[in-house]
């Protein structure tokens, strides 16, 4: 036995070495970004040319995650300009800032396009110039060209005049800059407002610099506000929200972890009056956590933090295994004899739980597959530690006069008085099954991602102000345009802009920007050239010709028409991801009435509005449905195993405890305001896994005559689980609070039901306990 303990200890050490190496060498990355959860299915039915909505949403949000916006407003323009430039300089100096731009006072991203556009100027018109020519007001544009020609401050050159004699391109670029979001000085009532746009490295969040960066930005903003009377600053960006949520979650987790750990330590020491059982439980739990992490880093290149959180929750299951061995008195016999008594129950509990988590592995989501692998590997390791290492450790008996034992005796005496007959148990089980089916069909679910986090009121208000003032930042949506011909897609985008122009003027939409704004369709370019020829060159060309040393021409050649260049689009941050395969994207910000937008473009072929929040919510709805199916499969598998072990009546009685506990957990959580979502269903998995162990261990105790010790071990397990999970119900983060509430209600019900539904009802059979 000692040799097996040594071998298993060496295996655990090897796991630790592998895990540390994989993580420290960046072979496996811990990812805490919610964006990495979406669009990461194990398989996809979409082609490489036409991505799904969720994948496009993920790419767009990932791009926006590397950008932050700080809006300054002041009643004096000069003061605003000076302060903006000073603040921008300070922000550039912060470690983690890649680029800083001031669109209101500096040249934006449209300027690099000038060289590309020069020889195509006749086909590129700002909307204002195009409208003027359509109305026959070419004279104004001609007069503007003369003013630019003789203006001493003009930046036009001989080369630009040759390709653009009427100086049309500067207005097109100015218009483009505004659409990109790089023309940022606006007048809002009596206040001038301008943005500072910050670009961050792609790894600023994954390498742990995000909190420090946000802290320095906040300190810089505070200092700037203190030194400038009358200045107002608002900020927005995913990094601010992410750090705020992480801060709330971290504070809650630290508080809960300290209380839970202290409580478990006090409980174990108070029960045994010795530190050895505490060492045994920590070894069991620690080996499970280590094996789970090792399995993930070996199989996956990137591991999501949520998978680690749910995987780590198996502490509530693995500690059961240790406690059931530790509570057996030394008078029972040798370590091998004590282990032989509980091994069948441990094996069945492990098999039942593993089947439950294995059902998650067949779902099409990477997240659920990671949770499944972590849990199964961890539970197997915890079981191995109990059967290989714990028998080697010295035995310490329970102190019968400990406060925990005395409390247990009173509760145990009261619960044992209740007896439910076989017919009643089957009736309750049938009603519970019907209740679960009805609940799955009729109980309203809410997978809205906005309801998952704590929500920072100040940041939400800042995002609203920036969106309303600048048409930038929050409430990003996009219009998706599909088609195998790029020119068809560009023409569709132009039709969309025409349909939405009234909404832009009225402020229902803050901004709209797509590929067609950068490179108009060939038909639009041809129309523009015809307008220039008929409304400018024909009536005013000769007059302008007299002031120019070259001939003005509008003859069309294939090279005169500009077509999309993916390399160019990718080189400018504001233009990235506008074209993905056979899909073009139009970004639309600060949308006040999405339904009105949908109605406005309803008749435009292949164009539809996509709301990322709705898309991600629908994705989590799919995750929830898969998790419900996996939970149902787990219950069926557990029922089959229980029937094989205990017979039909006994098996159904054992299954009844966790099944009814799940129903009561949902009803109880719903009564206190917890909504059903993906994370709630995952919490039910833990109710099933731990509750099934309660019922199985209680049923198994009737075979080896240690019913009281087993019930006491289950009681201790309940206390540790409530400490580990129940305290989550006090969290300020809604999703964590929901998980804690559901598990607390569910496990308490499962513990009580293990007395009434399974105890003393399993037939006593001769069982091989080897």
UniProtKB/TrEMBL annotation:
InterPro entries: Mycobact_MmpL. Gene3D superfamilies: Multidrug efflux transporter AcrB transmembrane domain. The keyword Secreted does not apply. Keywords: Membrane, Transmembrane, Transmembrane helix. The chain crosses the membrane at residues 256-275, 282-300, 306-327, 348-367, 373-393, 426-445, 626-644, 651-672, 678-699, 711-729, 735-756. The keyword Membrane applies. It comes from the Bacteria. PANTHER family: MEMBRANE PROTEIN MJ1562-RELATED (PTHR33406), MEMBRANE PROTEIN YDFJ (PTHR33406:SF13). This is Membrane transport protein MMPL domain-containing protein.
